[in-house]
Amino acid sequence: MNKQTYDPERLNAFINKIKLWSEATSLFDVQRWMFNVRCSVCLIFFVILASTGHVSARDLVTVKWVNDGDTVVLSDGRRVRYLGINSPEIDHDHKRAQPYGYAARAFNKKMVLDRRIRLEFDQERHDRYGRWLAYFFLQDGTLLNEVMLQMGYAYFLFKKPNLKYAQRLLKAQQEAMKAGRGLWSNWNEPKRRYIGNLNSRRFHLDSCSIAGKIKGKNKTSFLTRWEAFMAGYAPAGDCIKEFWSYGSQNK
Q1: Contact 184/177 with Cβ under 8 angstroms?
Q2: What is the pTM of this model?
Q3: Displacement of CA 102 from its chain's centroid (Å)
Q4: What is the domain partition of the chain in residue ranges?
Q5: Which CATH architecture has domain 30-185?
Q6: HEC string of the chain?
Q7: What amino acid positions are annotated as catalytic residues?
Q8: How far apart are CA 8 and CA 188, in angstroms?
Q9: pLDDT tens digits in sequence order for the chain, 251 residues long
């Protein structure tokens, strides 16, 4: 039986092949890892870009007319209403202006007239009057719906299913109320029981026929309108038409 001999050169050549295969495999892994890192960085970049409100010129619209504190007309003719807020009315249809109605319009005009604005939509694009519904953003990311509330020129209007910024807008109103800004200044009202609807976030006079139809599980109550507003409820127009007689005088 022939005896196998030890060949150092062949053994070294075999070891070198193993090293080369190992290095190639490691290089492939590194390259794959670097590719994944680059993809992740690109994804993060685009997410950050979107969240900072960066927009191109084609995403912007121009406001050419301001109706009041919460409605404008764009250069393309579209009428757009601010989502999540309601401003006091100005004189229209033989009705007198509500307190701060003209002040709200003047402030809105100062913010948006002839300016380039970015519109952001929620679940519903139009209201029953055919107006577009949107959140208004300046190019620096400022949410104008929020600013109107912060300055006390509007109150928060909860409306399902358009609740993208609901908590943010309510917080803005609460800050304005605590600071006594705009329509919340010099507030004065007698205590009286109001009934709130947990589903619609509207409050009614306790004597209102609609209040009597609210089911027990959806019903809550407040002693003042202030308390209801602070909780994020808005007056039900069907039975609280005299709301603006409380609080500050017309400005």
Answers
A1: yes
A2: 0.75
A3: 24
A4: 30-185, 186-251
A5: Beta Barrel (2.40)
A6: CCCCCCCHHHHHHHHHHHHHHHHHHHHHHHHHHHHHHHHHHHHHHHHHHHHCCCCCHHHEEEEEEECCCCEEEECCCCEEEECCEECCCCCECCECCCCCHHHHHHHHHHHHECCEEEEECCCCCECCCCCEEEEEECCCCCEHHHHHHHCCCCEECCCCCCCCCHHHHHHHHHHHHHHCCHHHCCCCCCCCCEEEECCCCEEEECCCCCHHHCCHHHEEEECCHHHHHHCCCEECCCCCCCHHHCCCCCC
A7: 81, 89, 131
A8: 102
A9: 454 555 666 666 666 666 665 555 555 554 665 566 565 545 554 444 444 445 455 589 999 999 999 999 999 999 999 999 999 989 877 778 888 999 999 999 999 999 999 999 999 999 999 999 999 999 999 999 999 999 999 999 999 999 999 999 999 999 999 999 999 999 988 899 999 999 999 999 999 889 989 998 999 999 999 999 999 999 998 777 655 544 444 34
Q: What is the dihedral of CA 233, 89, 205, 226, to 10 degrees?
A: 50
Buried/exposed code over 135-153 (b: 16+ C-beta within 10 A; e: otherwise): bbbbeeeebbbbbbbbbbb
- Rounded Cα gap, residues 148 and 134, in angstroms: 14
Is the previous residue joined to 88 through a cis bond, with omega within 30 degrees of 0?
no
